[in-house]
Amino acid sequence: MPAILFGSISTVADTSELQRDAFNRAFADHGLDWHWDRDTYVAMLNSNGGADRVAEYARSRGVDVDADAIHRTKSETFRRLLRASPPKPRLGVPESVSAARRDGTAVALVTTTSPENVAALVEALTPQLGDQPFDLLVDRGQVSEPKPDGAAYRFALDKLGVRAEDAVAIEDNVGGVQAAREAGVAVVAFPNENTSGHDFGPAAERVDRIEYGPLRAHLGENS
């Protein structure tokens, strides 16, 4: 059985700017006068892990903060914003998910974000994608190492009973591409609005919309 593996929340709905807004609101809630403008945030997206970004930014400013607490506030804020203004699926995602399911292809969301954020996204997109659009949801609570480690992809392949060569990943960030390739999975780069300038060199292809037929053509490109 083949599988299509969406690698992050923003491969399904572009929430990158919503995430940045949530960070800035969290900083204010914690009494910090920080503001990440778009250029600053874009530069940070070459690495994975929101709490790590907060900690690194604090070190660069010589400030001691509880990065985990700030990131928890950010995630709570993100979910609230998501509920208040549900995003639209990205181009081609609803059609491709439907076509895959009709064709007997497994569809999974393979992230290392929190289970609460994953659940909030799936709920927000229910009107467009249906009640159970994914055969498997992977979050950070299910794997020992976050991306760019390949653990999340190896976990997904094992749970789905799918060989790496029978899967294709869709990723919007460099760390995600690295994780999929480490697990032996071919990758289609699908940049979000804030990662469009990044170098997705190891990806087999870069696209601006998702189409089921071309995705299937990448199966077997795991070398």
From TrEMBL:
GO function term, MF aspect, one: hydrolase activity
Key words, A-Z: Hydrolase
UniProt cross-references to InterPro entries, sorted A to Z: CbbY-like, HAD-like_sf, HAD-SF_hydro_IA, HAD_sf, PGP-like_dom2
Pfam short name (any one): Hydrolase
Source domain of life: Bacteria
Family annotation (SUPFAM superfamilies): HAD-like
Protein name, per record: HAD superfamily hydrolase (TIGR01509 family)
Organism: Pseudonocardia endophytica
